[in-house]
Amino acid sequence: MERFPPCAATLTRIDALARDTFLYRFELERPIPFRAGQFVNMAVPTAKPRPERSYSVFSDPGQPGTLGLCIKLLEGGAASEMLRVAKVGDAYSFRGPMGVFTLADDGEPVSFVATGTGIAPYHAMLAEYARRLALKEVAPRTFRLYFGVRDEGDLFLTDTLDRWAKELPDFGYEVCLSRPSASWTRPAGRVTAALAAALPVGVPPAGHFYLCGNGPMIEETKALLAERGVDRKRVHYEKYY
Predict the structure, then answer these.
(1) Rounded distance, CA 78 to CA 100, Å?
(2) pTM of full prediction above 0.85
(3) Considering the domain 110-239, what is its CATH architecture?
C-alpha cells in the first residue's frame, strides 16, 4: 500500500494576501490529519522531472477536512502558472502529511524566524495554540516571531498577528523590511539583525528556535545562534529554496 496515497480536493476560496502571494483553501475528499508545521505535496502534472510541489500547511490542524496553503506565485514556475489561472471549483490532488518541522511539546519559549511564505507553518502552530489555549487544553507559553519580507508590497498577515499580540498572554512579533519605502516608519533591516538585537550576549538564550524560508537566511541565522551558544538540537529549520 502506498504510504501517502493521493487525496482529491476541491478549491473553495482564493484570498490575495500580498503582491503575488495568495491563500488557497481546499475541501478534501477525506480528512488528512496533520501536525502543525508539516507539509503536503500538490500534484503538478506539468512539473518536470517531479510532478509535485511541496507546501507547508497554513491552516489549523483542528480542521483536517480542509487545507489552507499560502503560496507566492513565481514567474514561470509550473505550480505558479497552474495556480495563476485557478478557479473556485477546480480539482486538485494532494499527498501527505510529511515532515518533522513541528513544535517541541515541552512548554519552553519559542522564537520563530520567517521570510516570506515561510510564515505559513508558524501560522498553523499559533492558530492551534490559540484555539487550545482558549479551551484550556494547554498552558500559556512564550512565543516571539521575526517576520522578514522585502518591502510593504510583500507584507501580509499583520492583522492576525496584531490580534494574537492582544489576545495571547506572551506573544510578540517584529516585522523586518529589508528594502522599505521612504514612508516606512518602523525599523528596517534584515530579519537576522532583528533577532541578533534581541538575543543576549554571553549567556545562551533559552528555548527553541524555528527557521523557515530562504536558504541564505537559514544559514545566516544558524551561524548566529551557534555563535550565541544555542544547542543545535534546539534549532529547527525548513528550507524553501
Answers:
(1) 26
(2) yes
(3) 3-Layer(aba) Sandwich (3.40)
